[in-house]
Design brief:
Layout: H1 3-26, H2 32-52, H3 63-81, H4 92-102, H5 105-109, H6 118-126, H7 131-142, H8 147-154, H9 159-173, H10 179-185
């Protein structure tokens, strides 16, 4: 199929489904990102047309297939946007000299050797609560999610009040007078 026919089909698809594509992209992106992703998706759709239109003409007539294409493209863009950065680690032999220059034995003698058991500490605290309440505390303090967003996700009216009550319940059921005593019971603070 020649380029002129592909250009005509591409223009027709964009005229017919432009608002549909933008709607699907807005489900996953906000603000200025929507138009940037739409432009990149337009290029991607053109390349898909070049590759597949001559083989599967009817495929481009189905809205569900176009929805799958735009959704998969958005997911791949989100993965690119949020991919983890690589951390370049130095080998032990390169860092031992540097560490020996800056270590102080008096500082290290007071510390307990070994990894602290943060997971065990959190698990013992959250075992008092049900899964939904534990999720609320994890979202607030571990992941740093704002209270307004927690309210939308979990459909809770007053998140901060609920979290305050959960803290009181942990103190009451754990027979703890204050949270300092609770933290002192944890093996990683000893």
């Amino acid at each position: 199929m020649d380029r002129q026919q592909i250009d005509i089909v591409f223009t027709e698809l964009m005229n017919r489904y432009r608002s549909f594509f933008l709607q699907q992209i807005r489900l996953k992106f906000e603000g200025e990102d929507v138009h940037d992703v739409f432009q990149e998706f337009s290029i991607h759709l053109y390349h898909v047309l070049v590759q597949k239109y001559s083989v599967e003409v009817d495929l481009f007539n189905t809205k569900s297939w176009l929805k799958a294409v735009v959704s998969n493209f958005c997911i791949s863009e989100l993965r690119k946007k949020h991919k983890k950065r690589k951390v370049n680690l130095l080998s032990e032999d390169k860092t031992s000299l540097i560490r020996s220059n800056y270590t102080d034995d008096s500082y290290n003698s007071d510390k307990v050797q070994g990894e602290p058991n943060y997971f065990g500490a959190m698990k013992s605290i959250l075992a008092i609560l049900n899964k939904r309440e534990a999720l609320m505390l994890k979202m607030k303090y571990y992941y740093g999610v704002p209270s307004a967003r927690i309210a939308r996700i979990l459909n809770v009216a007053h998140v901060d009040v609920t979290i305050g009550r959960l803290k009181q319940r942990i103190m009451r059921k754990g027979k703890i007078k204050d949270f300092d005593a609770l933290l002192a019971k944890m093996d990683w603070l000893v």
